[in-house]
Please model this.
Amino acid sequence: MKPLRENLSGIYSLMLTPYHPDRSIDYKTYEAYVDWQASQGVEHLFAVCGSSEMSNLTLDERLRLAELTVKHKGCTTVVATANMEYGLDKQIEEVKRMSATGVDGLVFTTKGMGDRGDELVDYIGTLAKHTDLPLFMYEFPGQRPHLISGETYGKLVTECGIVGIKDTTCTIEGICDKIAHKGDSCVIQANMPYLYEAFKNGAKAVMATPTSCGGAFFARFYEAFVNGDDALMKQRYNEITLLDNAIDSGYNNSAKYLIQLQGLRDFLPINRGGAELSPARMASLRSFHDWCVVNGLME
Model:
């Protein structure tokens, strides 16, 4: 397995958090889930992300999930968010503790400074002094304003050593703006409607919600991209679009239910916020899963 700095491209599968009925974390099921994710043919795992419900987890819970992801990562690499605490001093301590879990890279959110580029660069530069790990940016929608310009991203790359960004502009213009300023870094796509177009314009990696339950879909897409098979790449993109639409309503519980249908029976389709899927929604997901099985797309 190559070091992360030498292997930035590919699929970063997002990690969900399973819960017991009382909404305490089901760590045993999480370990089985990491094993399953690592078997899907993806290059990387993104522990402690928006799909993990990181805003609703304590620091100790986030650290434990990162440790377990590292323990079961197989041939993948692991990145994890490391600046969710309140206050700079606590975030610096978080950076140090997350670095000590054994993850291969750290992810920093823009922390509501998306429209204050120079302030964001100074802030990230301060955090970067406290770790030697590769660093990624994340335009996390839970902390707005979260979107940054390509120019700001270019400064983060050259002045702070950022090696990649999860772009969530959901526009091809925003993605291409970052690609134009990326230098040696990797622009990572999160928006599925523009997945194919973004890759044709220079994106080389994915961090997207459907990876949480369908990493194999993306592994097939990326293989077609690497092999230069445009027709197959477009077909795989269409399959991903179907998966994206299937889980769109009720995410992330919809993704959790698809994981359950693929064999992880103890992965309950519930989240810490209390939301649950309706019987009708589950019936729809079962129909989609059955179609995927018939067509060799899912187990």
Summary: The first strand starts at residue 10 and ends at 14.
